[in-house]
Amino acid sequence: MINNPSETFLMFVFFAFLSMKMLAAQNNTTIPVNVGVILNLDVGFHKVWLSCINMSLTDFYAVHGGQYKTRLVLTTRNSKQDVVGAAAAGLDLIKNVEVKAILGPPTSMQADFLIDMGVKARVPIISFSASSPSLSSLRNRYFFQATQNDATQVKAISSIVKAFGWREAVPVYVDNEFGAGIVPFLIDALQAVDARVPYRSAIFPTATDNEIGEELYKLMAMQTRVFLVHMSTTLGSRLFLIAEKIGMMSPGYVWIITDGLADFLSFMNSSVIDSMQGVLGVRPYVPKTKEVMSFKTQFKRTFIRNNPDTVDADLNVYDLWAYDATTALAMAIEKAGTSNLSFQKLNVSSNSTDLEKFGVSRFGPNLFQALSETNFKGLSGNFSFVNGQLKPSPYQIINVNGDGARGIGFWTEENGLIRKLNTLINSTTSIYSTSNSSLAPIIWPGEATSIPKGWEIPTKGQRLRIGVPAKNGFTEFLKVTKDASTNSSNVEGYCIDVFEAVVKLLPYALPFDYFPHEISDDKTYDDLIYQVYLGCYQQNYDAVVADSTIRLNRSYYVDFTLPYTESGVSMIVPVKDDKNKNVWVFLKPWTWDLWVACFCFFVFIGFVVWVLEHRINEEFRGPAVYQVGTSFWFSFSIMVFAHRERVVSNLARIVIVIWCFVVLILTQSYTASLTSLLTVQKLQPTVTDVNELIKSGAYVGYHEGSFTKGLLKLLGFDESKLRPFSTFEEWDDLFTKGSGNGGITAAFDEVSYIKLFLARHSSKYTTVEPKFKTDGFGFVFPKGSPLVSDVSRAILGVTEGETMKKIEEKWFGKEASCPDPSTSFSSNSLGVESFWGLFLITGGVSLLALLVFLVLFIYEQWDVITSPDFRSLRQRAVALFGNFYNRDLSSHFMLGNQVNDQKFQVNAAVVCEPRQCIP
């Protein structure tokens, strides 16, 4: 028994303290949750990731320790840079440790296998470094990419390619899941900006330096100089060291690296950085906030303390994602609750493999839902998952220069290329930019400051091999002569001068050599052009400069520049003098429809004048036959001389004035046309219809070696009826002989040849329809050649200036500008379409006059129409017609005539009276 009060007080304090400790221990009870971590701990930056994961848990529970009941317990496994090692680690964690989630694995190849294992066990896999787009295409429910998907950066890369106008780019990637996963997305993005991928360079992860060198030499032999590198740091470092050694880091080359290399430049040694000078890159951008800078300071202090052998440890965005992914997992596990943390064992046989023996997590569905709803502001920015993918962030564009990389701009999905991100805050418009002016100045490989054009000529270290046709005729266009003393070929002609003028306008040197190619009826232009297509594989020709026509079937194999000549294929035939000497030549100035129209209007005008005059004008009175004759006589006589009959009605006078004007124009036009027919030489084609040639079986000619032979066969000509010609003289000789004497009746050729041929024989031949459309002559280059666009622009510069005119005068002379004889033929007969306006006016005025006359007549005869003396409509009609046919005695013209008649009768009586008085 304790009687001392002090001892009693001490005992009371002791038990109170003990009770408080027990209560605190009860309140601070936590629930451990096993979480696996799979990293390659033999690599330095993987150790950095593990430190970031541990620091994330320490910082998280330091803030939320009193609120959260769960605690993540990490179990780390070393994948040892091996897919099998990662799979074994994942199997051990799920089967033996029964982890509820796995952070990692680090690579896309390792994740590809673990994804299926996680789906089967319902264990979420959260990787902050496996970025292959193909992983997301698996559409599984238990894989979360806490990193930027590689498919998001291809748009940034394609924007750079478009900004500098590069038309081709070659992906250089590691041949595994990580490298191949981005290629389809990269090609689609490049095609969207009209950039072509002529080749894909896949390098095996374990390739030796010699194998890498062989692949780089292959790239060096190509025209393309833009390379997009997507591979791991180990392989990428070796690649650039070898590229610098063989001279591929010199001016003219363009290297763009993805974030797989751009984010780890700080981990590369100085020799690798020196070999990468001038390289462009893209990497996710994380703003340098106060939280980020504070974390970097704390991390370096902690990491160096735990790893004293490490001199420095710089952080990148992957480290921040590792930190934020761990935080997200801790938040999601707490939210998912603490029930059902066990694994459900499956009933499997004793002979089952280890892959079939692990159980299924009951906690998995709740954790998956919680992870999908996670949303917080982490060190890397706003951290949330959308369909298992981390929301994309802006990309920073860097330029390797000096000891590291410097930022030259940014790319965002909304605005494209921009110089600074903070300019978007005050921007009121959202314009997508693909201009290189949005980027800071760039130092290119070889310390070049000018923008590389993205390709180089010549290929394979040789000069450009240009094929030219060697033929006998049409030397004005192209002529190949052999120098016996030097055994070399001299090439000249219109096509050669045009090409060389075009080359002078190019903004760069284009060394080339001409190589003659024999042309005959068996070795056609198609064969020559096809050699360019084969040149991609057999080094035949790199281009063709010739009088080669742009054709659809040829465009399947090669690319053409813009045409530099006229287009079209036409038929040419001899002409004959067709001066009209027959008795019916007077009918030819007008077409038959104009003759009919004039006759009808003469009759119509005569009828109108008779209607308007016969009631008030005695000259249009008399028997019916006499009235008809007078009306026609009056109408037709206007055409040749003034009419004898006078017209008294104002309406008739208006009609006659209009008709006289029309007749004047008709007679003058007829006289001019007839004069032309009788005096001008008429050169008419001997044949005007292709079908007529086919039916008659006539022989036709074609340009030897050209595509016109195939065109004629398509039209239906028998091959036995086709005769080739190779010179202008042979062409003329075949026409002179004629189809019956070993010659031809007609010939088909392109407009450029026909124009020159007609200039020499303008009085003997002409072209006739139909004219078949073609696109003219163009220069030939391989499919997708970047030279096509530059040469086409230069062609416009030549054809739009005085240079083309001088070249044409040099080779074709003034003859080439003389008019086509077919256009100097006499005009055709005149038709109704030339005078329909006059006929319309005349007819309208005449009908209006008739309408006015009819209204006035009905008004005058209204008493007859309403008279009760007529019992039927027929009687009224007969009475009206009688009044219409008879004289209008009330007219002042008729009254004047009656007075004159009475005066005449009185005078006659006075004269006769004396006679009557004479006995």
UniProtKB/TrEMBL annotation:
<comment type="subunit">
    <text>May form heteromers.</text>
</comment>
<comment type="similarity">
    <text>Belongs to the glutamate-gated ion channel (TC 1.A.10.1) family.</text>
</comment>
<protein>
    <recommendedName>
        <fullName>Glutamate receptor</fullName>
    </recommendedName>
</protein>
<dbReference type="InterPro" id="IPR028082">
    <property type="entry name" value="Peripla_BP_I"/>
</dbReference>
<keyword id="KW-0813">Transport</keyword>
<keyword id="KW-0406">Ion transport</keyword>
<feature type="transmembrane region" description="Helical">
    <location>
        <begin position="590"/>
        <end position="612"/>
    </location>
</feature>
<feature type="transmembrane region" description="Helical">
    <location>
        <begin position="835"/>
        <end position="859"/>
    </location>
</feature>
<dbReference type="InterPro" id="IPR001828">
    <property type="entry name" value="ANF_lig-bd_rcpt"/>
</dbReference>
<keyword id="KW-0732">Signal</keyword>
<keyword id="KW-1071">Ligand-gated ion channel</keyword>
<keyword id="KW-0472">Membrane</keyword>
<comment type="function">
    <text>Glutamate-gated receptor that probably acts as non-selective cation channel.</text>
</comment>
<keyword id="KW-0675">Receptor</keyword>
<dbReference type="InterPro" id="IPR015683">
    <property type="entry name" value="Ionotropic_Glu_rcpt"/>
</dbReference>
<dbReference type="GO" id="GO:0015276">
    <property type="term" value="F:ligand-gated monoatomic ion channel activity"/>
</dbReference>
<dbReference type="Pfam" id="PF01094">
    <property type="entry name" value="ANF_receptor"/>
</dbReference>
<keyword id="KW-0325">Glycoprotein</keyword>
<comment type="function">
    <text>Glutamate-gated receptor that probably acts as a non-selective cation channel. May be involved in light-signal transduction and calcium homeostasis via the regulation of calcium influx into cells.</text>
</comment>
<dbReference type="InterPro" id="IPR017103">
    <property type="entry name" value="Iontropic_Glu_rcpt_pln"/>
</dbReference>
<dbReference type="InterPro" id="IPR001320">
    <property type="entry name" value="Iontro_rcpt_C"/>
</dbReference>
<feature type="signal peptide">
    <location>
        <begin position="1"/>
        <end position="25"/>
    </location>
</feature>
<dbReference type="InterPro" id="IPR044440">
    <property type="entry name" value="GABAb_receptor_plant_PBP1"/>
</dbReference>
<feature type="domain" description="Ionotropic glutamate receptor C-terminal">
    <location>
        <begin position="463"/>
        <end position="814"/>
    </location>
</feature>
<keyword id="KW-0812">Transmembrane</keyword>
<feature type="transmembrane region" description="Helical">
    <location>
        <begin position="648"/>
        <end position="667"/>
    </location>
</feature>
<dbReference type="Pfam" id="PF00060">
    <property type="entry name" value="Lig_chan"/>
</dbReference>
<dbReference type="Pfam" id="PF10613">
    <property type="entry name" value="Lig_chan-Glu_bd"/>
</dbReference>
<dbReference type="GO" id="GO:0016020">
    <property type="term" value="C:membrane"/>
</dbReference>
<keyword id="KW-0407">Ion channel</keyword>
<keyword id="KW-1133">Transmembrane helix</keyword>
<dbReference type="InterPro" id="IPR019594">
    <property type="entry name" value="Glu/Gly-bd"/>
</dbReference>
